[in-house]
């Protein structure tokens, strides 16, 4: 399968775990922009990101990681989608609007994913009970949802009136936050936005 | 004081805490690129990022935050420096090289800062003893340094042969990692890189 690249045309493999929102961001952007790719399912629970072959692609030992036929590799979900979506409508052309998108991308990785995605992981994949979750993580997850609700009360999408990578990135774990014990029923604007963002990306409703 | 902006010329205030590496990233980039700014010292320990006025600028209640005279605001250290350094030599012109820089920027906020900066904060600003640090945070901080050492053994800077924002970002807390109990003497390549990156930015040696 073929993909646009910085130096012409190159085949691209996406190494990902289908249960990971970080990995799904890459799939969604490729599908939305009709970027061809080959998905390589990786089972992180079996140590498949710790093999010498995988660590040679991404020294951080994390998915998603993309690899081009010419040997180039790229990691970090938000860096990958920022590269694949360059020159597309998913990144605002105005430099300041793009910077506001970046603000949300970095916020997502620092103040959202470590709480909402981690709580979901512990419940869904480690089989923990909600009562076993770290209360501080739950509190910070709700703080992230509170901030999103305030922003979305007056803004259709995160970086303005049209969808951008900020929405792709934040959608990944917000749409399944209920699987991490978070009560989305409290968040009317977030629920409205989830539906709109899912429609933009052509996704079925997560709940 | 005046600063370039997306829409011409605007005055810029940088709200920051001089003890915060995240805030110093912004100062270093402004100084390096001769972007004029007014530094507004913010004491986070006194709740100064939780006032209604501050939260109106940055709903996340965090420094650094920059504000332009026309009312626009921008937060998240790596998003700020990415905006201020656009069109400068601190961001590679090649799209894939810029994406590799972004990979390190996101990795810094997810896999480096939460461990190395947080340990330093607890020792230097909360007055804890090294024995009170969360062993998991220390372990992950060393894992970050290990990865940097492996990369820098064969690469002069993080995104290639010339300094980029990846170096600015990673320098902020790495050069003071010893204040968070991390033994930098084990890391010859990291120490070599710290010196080179400090020289690029015109900084005095941190240790």
Order of strands, main sheet of chain A, comes to 4-3-5-6
CATH topology of the largest domain in chain A: Glutathione S-transferase Yfyf (Class Pi), Chain A, domain 2
Q: Which two chains touch over the largest interface?
A: A-B, 35 and 35 residues
Q: What structural class results from the helix and strand content of chain A?
A: alpha+beta
CATH class of the largest domain in chain A: Mainly Alpha
Protein described:
The structure is a homodimer of 207-residue chains. Chain A is α+β, with helices and mostly antiparallel strands. The first copy, chain A, has two domains: 3-84, Glutaredoxin (3-Layer(aba) Sandwich); 95-201, Glutathione S-transferase Yfyf (Class Pi), Chain A, domain 2 (Up-down Bundle). Helix content of chain A is 48%, strand content 11%. Chain A has seven helices and six strands. The first copy, chain A, has helices at 21-33, 52-57, 77-84, 95-124, 135-152, 165-174, 188-201, and strands spanning 3-5, 8-10, 12-16, 38-41, 65-68, 73-75. In chain A, the strands form two sheets. A four-stranded mixed sheet of chain A has the order 4-3-5-6, with helices on one face. In chain A, strand 1 and strand 2 form a beta hairpin. In chain A, helix 1 (21-33) packs parallel to helix 3 (77-84), helix 4 (95-124) runs parallel beside helix 6 and helix 5 (135-152) packs across helix 7. The longest helix of chain A has 30 residues, at 95-124. Residues 1-9 of chain A have low confidence and may be disordered. The interface between A and B is medium-sized, with 35 and 35 residues.
């Amino acid at each position: 399968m073929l993909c646009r690249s910085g130096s012409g045309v190159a085949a691209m493999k996406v190494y990902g775990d289908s249960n990971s929102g970080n990995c799904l961001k890459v799939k969604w952007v490729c599908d939305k922009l009709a970027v061809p790719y080959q998905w390589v399912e990786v089972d992180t629970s079996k140590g498949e990101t710790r093999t010498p072959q995988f660590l040679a692609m991404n020294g951080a030992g994390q998915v998603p990681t993309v690899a081009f036929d010419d040997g180039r590799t790229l990691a970090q979900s938000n860096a990958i989608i920022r590269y694949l979506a360059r020159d597309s409508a998913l990144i605002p052309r105005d430099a300041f609007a793009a910077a506001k998108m970046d603000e949300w991308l970095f916020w997502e990785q620092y103040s959202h994913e470590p709480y909402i995605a981690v709580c979901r992981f512990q419940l869904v994949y480690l089989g923990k009970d909600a009562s076993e979750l770290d209360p501080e993580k739950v509190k910070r997850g709700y703080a992230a949802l509170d901030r999103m609700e305030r922003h979305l009360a007056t803004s259709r999408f995160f970086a303005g009136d049209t969808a951008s990578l900020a929405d792709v990135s934040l959608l990944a774990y917000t749409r399944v936050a209920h699987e991490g014990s978070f009560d989305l029923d409290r968040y009317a604007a977030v629920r409205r936005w989830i539906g709109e963002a899912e429609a933009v990306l052509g996704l079925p409703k997560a709940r």
